[in-house]
Specification:
The complex is a heterodimer of chains A (473) and B (87). With 473 residues, chain A is an alpha/beta fold. Chain A has 16 helices and 18 strands. Chain A folds into two domains: 175 residues, FAD/NAD(P)-binding domain (3-Layer(bba) Sandwich); 243 residues, Polyamine Oxidase, Chain A, domain 2, CATH 3.90.660. The chains are: A alpha/beta (473), B mainly alpha (87).
Chain lengths: 473, 87
């Protein structure tokens, strides 16, 4: 076991955080290799091909979008740290989004990449709460990007400023849907990160989806001299005297590395160390995707980019008892970004995402699983359509040219994240430390979220545990 | 290497790590942080690029000496020259 290859840093998983970390480390002369079990990079933000079309896996929108010239934000930081020109990501801002509550979305708050819109919506519809809302925004603006307030309750914090539970839920709904691993409430630190990412900053998307960003990252990594081994998972981490002495690959081959960065999740990393921990309650999602023969706007659905909907008085963000919680969800129209004159997607896309219970989907016999998927597909779309302008009966099926759907088991199968958890475990590890002295986490369980957050996570863990440590030595 | 060449080497690094900053008018006596939007991540990068490009080591205790272009030149020029003399 010494003929094995020796790296300065081995990165487990080619998710966005692992790629970002890899770029930093390779750029500064470290011998780095990324080991990825899947055949495609991207982890929870990958893409796949089906019927000649390419679909984004997780991405509805890139959050943390700011226009050129706005400095000191997470997007600006990752561009600088990874030496990426912002034009390379080709981000196009959203048109506008909405939070819609009540049986048919009667209570709505519109928001866009201009924070003033949300401020005016809150002032107009919740006049008594406007000052409180501004206090919350000011708090988030003054909170460092890494997020303070870990462990505290976001709801308790909000209630110091608001008295209206409807506004509380309406503001929390998008933030929870786009990044809370905790049920019912949010960690205040996460709240702050997400409030900034969604409301103070905003949504954008490259015309061709997440693969544009992936291509940029992979090319930077390659140019910097990073190695990558695909279809080459890590089976276990061999521990000796409190350190990772070697990594055993799926093939049985052993490799050595001075440092190990793992972007596969905390529980997943523990499992590689042979220290399985009790699986935390995590949140899963289902998503339906319909490809349309025309833009959603041409179908009569308007130009919303994202609609966060909930039909009840209160917003219940928790693991559903049944297979899917149809009461609330997210509608995404990838067509509705400002791609520029004459540019747009060649087909319409209608995506709906709802909370789903992992156990209720796992271990079903194949034919039951398929039947449940088909049944829920229709129910999920019907639920979402309550919050959109009404179409003629039969208009959606007539315009649909292809469909797809994923469940928590699909996510688990392709990403390796236990229980198909999109936002990881409720307990985060801000310093990235694990039980072993030279193994560090990056990615969702380190605590930053979204595409920009995950890259920032990889960058900061690489800086803190490898590059700064080397600098200080 | 002269002080001016040293300042240019530092500015070249800043231009690469912060291409969105306008460097045409940087005042050498004013702290970089006070005229450019540079945070601690960016300063770490300046230090790491000095090592990568020029083989110059700046221990963490000396980061403060990189505050302005003038102080960079004062601190780094002898290091550049010592390295040049060695090779």
């Amino acid at each position: 076991m010494n003929s094995g290859t020796q790296y300065d840093v081995a990165i487990i998983g080619a998710g966005l955080s692992g790629l970002a970390a890899g770029i930093r480390l390779a750029h500064f002369g470290k011998r780095v290799c990324i080991f990825e079990r899947h055949n495609a990079a991207g982890g929870l933000n990958s893409f796949y091909s089906l019927g000649g079309r390419k679909f984004d896996v997780g991405l509805h929108a890139v959050t943390n979008y700011v226009p050129a010239g706005v400095k000191g934000t997470p997007l600006g930081k990752i561009l600088r740290q990874l030496r990426i020109d912002r034009d390379e990501f080709a981000l196009c801002p959203q048109k506008g989004s909405r939070v819609a509550f009540g049986p048919g979305g009667e209570r709505a708050l519109r928001f866009s990449n201009d924070f003033a819109l949300l401020e005016s919506e809150v002032s107009a519809q919740f006049p008594g709460q406007a000052d409180g809302f501004r206090r919350i925004a000011a708090y988030v603006r003054d909170t460092p990007l890494a997020g303070a307030g870990a462990g505290a309750s976001a709801r308790a914090f909000i209630r110091e400023s608001f008295t209206d539970p409807l506004l509380e839920d309406m503001l929390l709904c998008p933030l929870m849907f786009y990044g809370s691993a905790r049920e019912e409430d949010m960690d205040l630190g996460q709240f702050s990160i997400m409030f900034r990412a969604l409301y103070l900053e905003g949504f954008a998307r490259p015309l061709e989806g997440v693969r544009v960003m992936m291509r940029v990252l992979l090319e930077k990594y390659r140019q910097a001299g990073g190695e990558r081994r695909m279809k080459c998972g890590v089976r276990s981490i061999v521990e000796r005297e409190g350190r990772a002495a070697a990594l055993v690959l799926d093939s049985g081959e052993e490799i050595q590395a001075t440092h190990v960065l793992s972007c596969i999740g905390a529980a997943e990393t523990d499992a590689l160390m042979g220290r399985p921990r009790e699986t935390a309650r995590t949140l899963g999602y289902v998503e339906t995707i319909s490809v349309l023969d025309r833009a959603p706007e041409a179908l009569g659905w308007g130009d919303d980019t994202i609609v966060f909907f909930n039909d009840s008085d209160r917003f219940d963000y928790k693991d559903p008892k049944g297979q899917v919680d149809l009461r609330s969800g997210i509608i995404c129209f990838p067509n509705n970004f400002l791609y520029g004159k004459g540019r747009g997607l060649s087909e319409g896309l209608f995506r709906v995402t709802c909370l789903a219970n992992y156990e209720a989907w796992a271990k079903l016999p194949e034919e039951v699983y398929r039947a449940d998927k088909a049944r829920h597909f229709a129910q999920i779309q019907a639920s979402a359509m309550r919050f959109l302008p009404r179409l003629e009966p039969g208009a959606l099926p007539a315009a649909t040219v292809a469909t797809d759907m994923f469940t928590p088991t699909t996510v688990e199968k392709y990403t390796g994240h236990f229980r198909g958890a999109i936002y990881g475990s409720p307990a985060k590890h801000p310093d990235g430390r694990t039980g072993l002295a030279n193994v560090f986490l990056c990615g969702t369980d380190q605590g930053m979220l979204g595409i920009v957050g995950s890259m920032l996570s990889g960058i900061s863990m690489a800086n803190l545990h490898v590059l700064r440590a080397a600098q200080a030595a | 290497m002269t002080n001016d060449e040293c300042k240019k080497a530092v500015l070249d690094i800043i231009a690469d790590i912060a291409p969105d900053e306008d460097l045409s008018n940087v005042k050498p006596e004013v702290r970089l942080r006070d005229q450019l939007q540079l945070d601690s991540m960016d300063f770490l990068d300046i230090v790491m690029e000095l090592r990568k490009r020029h083989g110059i080591e700046v221990p963490e205790a000396d980061y403060i000496r990189l505050a302005s272009l003038d102080s960079c030149a004062e601190y780094l020029t002898p290091k550049f020259n010592a390295l040049a003399a060695k090779s």
